[in-house]
Backbone:
């Protein structure tokens, strides 16, 4: 029997015979990773510390702090501090409110509420249509005369005449409202997969014991799929700096009407560089990214520990 | 799975169920209304659309759908060209990404070898710790390698084996009993044969689920094309630019809506047909490391 071969040291002779196959198998993904992840990030970090003459300097970090103080030279007219606050706000909304609502919604759909199949398809339609189409259509609906514009105007008569995206006061609120609708069933596929792995007998015995819907959800369903929830929450811990670049679509690349986010700003800078108009400036985004990474890493590590410690003794 | 129990339990829970149901219907309406609005306006003439874009169509101007293939274009690439670009980008990007992730996940989940734990920790690190602001550096590197605007080589940058697909596949490969591969070894099968004929067929539902969810994302991805493949516009980028570019007349709007509807149909159909497969096979959990 293959697995009964004698184990000398850490690896048995059977395992050692497989090394050539294993290393050949992982060679491509590892080399790809070294070039396109390690190489790119090493290059990005070096941009943060090098000036035009390839001398080590902190000039780019100084410019980031100038931007934090209100200088908009390198941020395409967006105020950096506001941009960061906006990103954190959207992330907090997602992490603390929309994600839990998404778990509840997915659970109710999973327990087969009337029309669950059709409802699930309806909810996924914005994602299926894609950000481009959905945001373009929403843009029409929030223009002056659009359905959403008319609806909001019933409650507020002082709306901007060029549509909800044309004013600082309404543009960001509109983006938040759209994000809420689009995120209500976020992670539906992964969460449904997790719920479906909980044996029906567990729910049935809870019901026999007299547990109601909410008690079954909170004390049975959530602990049973906590490892999946923890994984998704851990991934979303770091998303405040990368998500919401679709603001680019809502404002057609402008993003200055009080709507810019970190994801948007970094995407816009990359896009402007890719157009190769003028001299590309790599130092500022690299320094900004590095500073945000340094701030984010401890938050992610601590957050992950906290998330994983919630339910540690549940086995399904 | 039995039907939802809140329907048949206490009175207060019945009320909860009804409230949720009404709420769900409202959210569903909000989710499908933009699509319905686009569909409705795609069947109007420009005159009717410009007078009232919210009335129900009575014209049924299906000619707009034919005009998509003759009038909808961006930078010299027509709708059919964009459709071809969307298709090859989806097929190539999904295939290389899933293949790379599957190779790495299989090796780490099923074999004991020096570096295994390190690679697993790296995969978890990459998925949980963001390295921010590397977009410009990535563009510079790809430009240096001549991969920007080059469909023959750009796929190399898409073939990451360390992303979310790894997390899902690792769990699946780990869950396949070792006795299958042991039986194959006894029968004289080599490693590649064991992988392709014994292990891979057992994770095909999971692979297909990952591929479909990734295909949906890639089909709608304008960001990558906007930076790296502007000369090969896909439908998502073409739709964005057609709408954003002031050179295109307002009169083309019903045609734009028709183009948007046609673009969404394949992906909505794909999801509707494979919903159960996706929902039953996508799971991720238990990060250690």
Residues:
């Amino acid at each position: 029997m293959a697995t009964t071969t004698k184990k000398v040291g850490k690896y048995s002779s059977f395992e050692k015979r497989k090394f050539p196959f294993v290393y050949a198998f992982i060679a491509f993904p590892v080399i790809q990773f070294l070039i396109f992840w390690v190489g790119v990030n090493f290059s990005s970090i070096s941009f943060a510390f090098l000036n035009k003459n390839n001398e080590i300097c902190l000039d780019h970090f100084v410019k980031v702090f100038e931007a934090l103080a209100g200088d908009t030279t390198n941020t395409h007219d967006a105020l950096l501090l506001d941009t960061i606050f906006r990103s954190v706000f959207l992330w907090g909304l997602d992490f603390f409110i929309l994600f839990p609502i998404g778990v509840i919604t997915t659970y109710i759909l999973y327990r087969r509420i009337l029309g669950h199949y059709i409802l699930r398809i309806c909810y996924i339609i914005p994602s299926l249509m894609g950000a481009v189409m959905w945001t373009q259509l929403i843009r029409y609906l929030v223009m002056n005369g659009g359905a959403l514009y008319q609806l909001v105007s019933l409650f507020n008569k002082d709306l901007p005449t060029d549509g909800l995206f044309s004013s600082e006061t309404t543009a960001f609120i509109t983006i938040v409202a759209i994000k809420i609708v689009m995120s209500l069933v976020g992670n539906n596929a992964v969460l449904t997969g997790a719920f479906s792995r909980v044996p029906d007998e567990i729910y049935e015995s809870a019901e026999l014991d007299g547990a109601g819907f909410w008690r079954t959800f909170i004390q049975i369903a959530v602990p049973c799929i906590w490892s999946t929830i923890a994984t998704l929450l851990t991934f979303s811990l770091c998303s405040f700096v990368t998500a919401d670049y679709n603001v680019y679509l809502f404002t057609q690349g402008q993003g200055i009407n009080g709507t810019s986010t970190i994801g948007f700003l970094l995407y816009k800078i990359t896009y402007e560089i890719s157009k190769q108009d003028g001299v590309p400036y790599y130092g500022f985004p690299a320094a900004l990214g590095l500073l945000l990474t340094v701030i984010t890493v401890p938050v992610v590590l601590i957050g992950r520990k906290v998330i994983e410690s919630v339910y540690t003794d549940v086995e399904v | 799975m039995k039907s939802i129990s809140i329907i048949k339990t206490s009175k207060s829970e019945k009320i909860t169920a009804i409230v949720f149901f009404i709420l769900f219907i409202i959210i569903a309406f909000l989710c499908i209304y933009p699509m319905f609005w686009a569909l409705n306006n795609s069947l109007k003439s420009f005159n009717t659309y410009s007078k009232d874009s919210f009335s129900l169509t009575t014209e049924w101007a299906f000619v707009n759908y034919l005009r998509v293939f003759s009038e909808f274009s961006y930078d010299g690439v027509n709708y059919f060209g964009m459709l071809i670009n969307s298709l090859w980008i989806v097929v190539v990007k999904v295939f290389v990404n899933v293949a790379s992730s599957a190779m790495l996940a299989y090796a780490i989940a099923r074999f004991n070898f020096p570096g295994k734990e390190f690679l697993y920790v790296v995969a978890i690190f990459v998925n949980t710790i963001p390295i921010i602001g590397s977009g410009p550096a990535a563009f510079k590197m790809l430009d240096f390698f001549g991969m920007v605007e080059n469909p023959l080589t750009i796929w190399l940058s898409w073939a990451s084996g360390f992303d979310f697909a790894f997390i899902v596949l690792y769990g699946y490969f780990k869950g396949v009993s070792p006795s299958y591969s042991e039986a194959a070894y006894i029968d004289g099968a080599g490693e590649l044969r064991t992988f392709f004929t014994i292990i891979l067929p057992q994770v095909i539902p999971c692979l297909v689920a990952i591929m479909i969810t990734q295909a949906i994302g890639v089909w709608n991805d304008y960001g990558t094309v906007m930076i790296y493949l502007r000369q090969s516009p896909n439908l998502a980028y073409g739709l964005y630019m057609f709408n954003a570019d002031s050179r295109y007349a307002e009169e083309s709007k019903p045609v734009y809506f028709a183009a948007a509807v046609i673009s969404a149909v394949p992906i909505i159909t794909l999801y509707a047909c494979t919903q159960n497969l996706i929902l039953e096979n996508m799971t991720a959990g238990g990060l250690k490391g």
